[in-house]
Amino acid sequence: MPTLVDLGYENAGDGFRHPHKKPAGGELTEAQQTYNKVIRGIHGVCERANSLLKTTFKALRRVSLDPSRITKIAAAALVLLQLEYDRTI
Asked: Which of 61, 37, 38 shows the shortest CA–CA distance to 50?
């Protein structure tokens, strides 16, 4: 499953989608700039959702569970937020 990440994961391998880095002394192509805008737009929405979850549910601030378990807990918390605010994030 493709995963959106920032430039810190640049050489992490297949399956990670990160923005294109500007080459030394060069410019990004128009396609690369558009790709970066899309990635950053999606990343911003995800960061906002993560922030809302962590500020609303204190239990999600310091988690040391298996990633698959915390994913289920975070999904349930997101549903609760959607019901509370009567909208999606």
From this structure: 61
Task: Say whether pTM exceeds 0.85.
Answer: no
pLDDT truncated to tens, each residue of the chain (89 aa)? 677 777 777 777 777 788 888 889 899 999 999 988 988 888 888 888 778 878 887 777 777 777 777 778 888 888 888 887 776 55
Q: How far is CA 50 from CA 12, 28, 73, in A?
A: 22, 30, 13
Dihedral sign from CA coordinates of 46, 12, 15, 71:
negative
Q: Domain containing 19: what range?
A: 3-85
Domain count, the chain: 1
Rounded distance, CA 34 to CA 81, Å? Answer: 32
